[in-house]
Amino acid sequence: MLGSTPKVGEAAPPLELPAADGSGRRALSDFRGRPVLVSFLGPAHCPFCRAHVIRTIQRRDEFARLDAEVIMIGYEDPQDMTAMMLRNLDLPYLLLIDPSRDTHRRWGMGEATWRAWVRPGLYLAAVTSLLRREEQFKAQPTPSQMTGDFVVRRDGRVAFAKVLKSFHDRASVSTLLSVIASA
C-alpha cells in the first residue's frame, strides 16, 4: 500500500533494510544525531540514477565536512546494482536493498503514471545520454518504480522531501548539501 510522502517537519518513516554488502540490517535510527541523505534509486540500468550516484560521490568531502551520512536504497539484486549502476565506482556510502519495494511505498514512491513518460525533459535527458554514449535502457521487471531524495535532520525529522515526477528530475546535489548544512 502506497504511503504518503513524508512532509518537511514530520518524523521520517521507519527504514530498516539489509545492506547490499551482506553486513546485516541497518536502520535510519542508527544514524540519529547526524543529518542523513536518503536517496532511493531506480532500476540498476538507469543512467539518471547512475549520474546522481556519481555526482554524490564527487561531493563526498562536502558530505563528510557536514558529518552527514548518505544512504542509497536500491531494489534490485545487489550483484545487478554493482554490475550495472555502480560499475567502476568506489561507493563510499551505505547501499541498502529493498527487494519488495515496501520501503519505497512507505516513503510515498509508487510506480510512474503515464504523465512521467510524457514530460519533455525526459526526452531531452535521454537524447543527452545518447550523445554522451551512456548505457541505454533495458527491459526490467519494474522499470516504472519512482524514486526520490530525502534529507533527515539530526532529530529524525524530514528537512527535505522530493519524490520524482519523472525519471530525471532529481534535486541537485548542491541543493541537498545546502539543506543538510541547515539541518
Brief characterization of the structure:
By secondary structure, this protein is of the alpha/beta class. It has seven helices and seven strands; from the N terminus they run E-E-E-H-H-E-H-E-H-H-H-E-E-H. The protein has helices spanning 47-58, 60-65, 78-85, 102-106, 114-117, 120-131, 173-182; strands at residues 16-18, 25-27, 36-40, 69-74, 94-97, 148-152, 158-163.
Write the SSE topology.
Elements lengths: L15 E3 L6 E3 L8 E5 L6 H12 L1 H6 L3 E6 L3 H8 L8 E4 L4 H5 L7 H4 L2 H12 L16 E5 L5 E6 L9 H10 L1
Parallel strand pairs: 3-4, 4-5
Antiparallel strand pairs: 1-2, 3-6, 6-7
**Second-tier CATH architecture:** 3-Layer(aba) Sandwich
CATH topology: Glutaredoxin
What fraction of residues sit in β-strands?
Answer: 15-25%
Count of folded domains: 1
